[in-house]
TrEMBL record:
It comes from the Bacteria. Catalyzes the transfer of the diacylglyceryl group from phosphatidylglycerol to the sulfhydryl group of the N-terminal cysteine of a prolipoprotein, the first step in the formation of mature lipoproteins. PROSITE patterns: LGT. The keyword Transport does not apply. This is Phosphatidylglycerol--prolipoprotein diacylglyceryl transferase. The gene is lgt. It is found in: Cell membrane. Its EC number is 2.5.1.145. The chain crosses the membrane at residues 12-36, 56-76, 96-114, 126-145, 175-193, 200-220, 240-257. InterPro entries: Lgt (IPR001640). Belongs to the Lgt family.
């Protein structure tokens, strides 16, 4: 067993103001996406300008935050929301959903695409390789915060998380997700998209691999206590929400390579 590093989740504290590492990780994700977007824009042959990159990151940030919060409440706290709709704005209690954030980003990218007269999928193909930066940073934030841990296990790298009321040795599933959804997914998308690919392919690959990685990790991640397992003693809400991503990803990749339509200004 490995000792949990027990890092203070509060990075900076000045009087009553506290800045948590989880919030800093959001900034890392957005900053990383902006820098990589600027790098790619310079090599886009005029398809993307620095102003467009700034706009798309701003729209994406709104989509992530609003969609992530709304999605968490609807997907994981719906009964509580029905009893008390005000929990939607109680953001200090935490709670963000990747799948809600994804839907929020799609809506935000639709608004961006209409404003800049671009095809929606050309926009999502452009930003998809940058998203794993934020995903990986977010999972590190979960790990530092000692939340969203895995199931009990006897593997040699298991950890006991301070906030765990049972104080059991568990899978550090946050680090698994950092490695898969962050590092591995970034490498796949970044190198795949180095040269121009047919429309739909990069977005499809993102949906396919994220969905697969999330489904795999859910087998060793502790399910949300208010929901538990949905069926069979192993099916989780995260797996159920990720399955359509896998199906949609396969479909988009197939459509892309069949149609071979490349992005246009």
């Amino acid at each position: 067993m490995i000792s949990y590093p027990n890092i203070d989740p509060i990075a900076i504290s000045v009087g009553p103001i506290a800045v948590h590492w989880y919030g800093i990780m959001y900034l890392v994700g957005f900053a990383g996406a902006y820098l990589l977007g600027m790098y790619r824009a310079k090599r886009s042959g005029g398809l993307w300008t620095p102003e467009m990159v700034g706009d798309v990151i701003f729209y994406g940030a709104l989509g992530v935050i609003l969609g992530g919060r709304i999605g968490y409440i609807l997907f994981y706290q719906f009964p509580s929301f029905v009893d008390n709709p005000l929990i939607l704005v109680r953001i200090w209690e935490g709670g963000m959903s990747f799948h809600g954030g994804l839907l929020g980003v799609i809506v935000a990218m639709l608004v961006f695409a209409r404003r800049h007269k671009k095809h929606l999928v050309d926009v999502t193909d452009f930003i998809a390789p940058f998203v794993p930066i934020g995903l990986g940073a977010g999972r590190l934030g979960n790990f530092i915060g000692g939340e969203l841990w895995g199931k009990p296990t006897d593997v040699s790298w298991a950890m006991v998380f301070p906030a765990d009321p049972l104080q059991l040795a568990r899978h550090p599933s946050q680090l698994y997700q950092f490695a898969l959804e962050g590092v591995a997914l970034f490498c796949v998308l970044w190198f795949f998209s180095q040269k121009s690919k047919p429309r739909y392919c990069v977005s499809g690959l993102f949906l396919l691999f994220y969905g697969l990685f999330r489904i795999l990790v859910e087998f060793v991640r502790q399910p949300d206590p208010q929901i538990g397992y949905l069926a069979f003693g192993w099916l989780t809400q995260g797996q159920l929400l990720s399955l359509p991503m896998v199906i949609a990803g396969v479909a988009l990749v197939a459509i892309g390579f069949k149609g071979k339509i490349f992005p246009k200004h």
